[in-house]
Design goal:
Number of strands: 0
Distance between the termini: 23 Å
Mean pLDDT: 78
Strand content: under 5%
Low-confidence stretches: none
Structural class: mainly alpha
Number of helices: 7
Helix content: over 70%
Shape: flat
């Protein structure tokens, strides 16, 4: 019935959904294992004045085929289970909308403001305060909005 249609829609959208999610998982695991992304970012920021940039291997080249296949299959299984369990798409859109809005509009600008102030020699306390307020407000907005979305699920 409707759940089977949602399953077909999720399966058709897999190429668009799996690639960014897969890269996020790879980068997250690699960051936990060896701080690779932090080291590459620090190297890039230090060498940003130079015109020659050192090209590093992509994350997909660093992980084993077994880990790669495990992540892709896990994502596919989770998507299939999710599509069979969820009956109301308003919940899905609510969570995704809240997540993207809080991250894009509040948390990322606040964090980027804090990072740029960290890189400067002369720190502007007003900018640091604004960055903290924006990031904290975004986190509160995310949790409060998702609280009401979860309450819709429970009722």
């Amino acid at each position: 019935s409707v759940k089977v249609i949602f399953l077909v829609i999720f399966l058709c959208a897999l190429p668009f959904n799996i690639y960014p999610v897969k890269l996020c998982v790879f980068n997250f695991v690699e960051e936990i294992r060896s701080n690779r992304i932090s080291k590459d970012l620090d190297t890039f920021l230090v060498n940003s004045q130079n015109t020659s940039h050192q090209k590093t291997k992509g994350i997909e080249d660093l992980v084993s085929d077994q880990f790669h296949n495990g992540v892709v299959i896990s994502i596919m299984v989770l998507l299939c289970i999710f599509s069979l369990v969820v009956e109301d798409l308003r919940v899905v859109f609510g969570i995704i909308g809240t997540f993207s809005e809080a991250i894009i509009n509040f948390i990322m600008p606040g964090v980027l403001l804090l990072v740029t102030q960290r890189q400067k020699k002369e720190k502007n306390q007003l900018h640091i305060g604004i960055g903290v307020v924006m990031a904290v407000f975004g986190a509160l907005y995310f949790f409060i909005s998702n609280y009401f979305t979860v309450m819709k699920l429970i009722k």
